[in-house]
Amino acid sequence: MRQNLILLGPPGAGKGTQAKMLVDKYAIPQISTGDILREAVKSGTPLGIEANSHMSRGALVPDEVVIGIVKERLKRGDCGKGYILDGFPRTIAQADALFSYLNECGCPITEVIDIKVPKDHLVIRLSGRRVCRSCGAGYHIEFNPSKDGGRCDRCGGELFQRDDDREDVVIKRFETYEAQTTPLSEYYKKKGQLTTISGIGDVEAIFDDICKIVDER
Ligand code: AP5
Ligand code: MG
Ligand code: ZN
User: Fold this and answer.
1) For residue 105, what pLDDT is reported?
2) Residue whose CB lies within 8 A of the most ligand 1 atoms, among 56, 60, 72, 204, for a mutation test
3) pTM confidence score
């Protein structure tokens, strides 16, 4: 069955962690707008330069830019059996644009999972997060450390800390999330597509919860 999934949740909720596991289980791609934008920033493209001016201060990249990126990405052949949207939509305007686009092609969102984690946990998660520069695998210095601290277990790549995981930017990202993204829970609840889960506890247990929801829908 086709799975068009959305993972909602605040910065550090575990969207990326869970999305990567869902990729393996359902053989559908993860579409992380954050990852796409960070790649553009790294390459120094005009998109990257514009995106960085917003990302570096914890603000959202303008809707029209992100909507354009996602529409292009959804056209690619690997989305034929579905996909996992991680970090998109993040505003009502993005959700409306996605709705219209999917309506036109007759393949609506099948499930929206809202991952709830209290702020004190999120702060600890973000400050300890490390990411592999080569393969993008995620680690945490305390909860999921790599075997040799500075290198990725999977590929040996260097682990680094995201620029926007600095404390001052994290505070801004939470404010942005509260103001612009929390209304999406109500938006998808009204459509009967939302399931809320706790994102606290064992990563595998949370993954099982998500799979149950996806399989039962
Ligand atoms: P984005 O990259 O999407 O960042 P985010 O939403 O802030 O979310 P994160 O990636 O920080 O957290 P996550 O939920 O993926 O958590 P993770 O699994 O890594 O966006 C970045 C920026 O790009 C935005 O600020 C904005 O500027 C721009 N942008 C992106 N999309 C946009 C859009 N649609 N519109 C406009 N602008 C956009 O986990 C975090 C840590 O916790 C890791 O270390 C992990 O190992 C650990 N962890 C995970 N699960 C657990 C667990 N159960 N227990 C303990 N630790 C755990
Ligand atoms: Mg992420
Ligand atoms: Zn790696």
Assistant:
1) 86
2) 60
3) 0.97
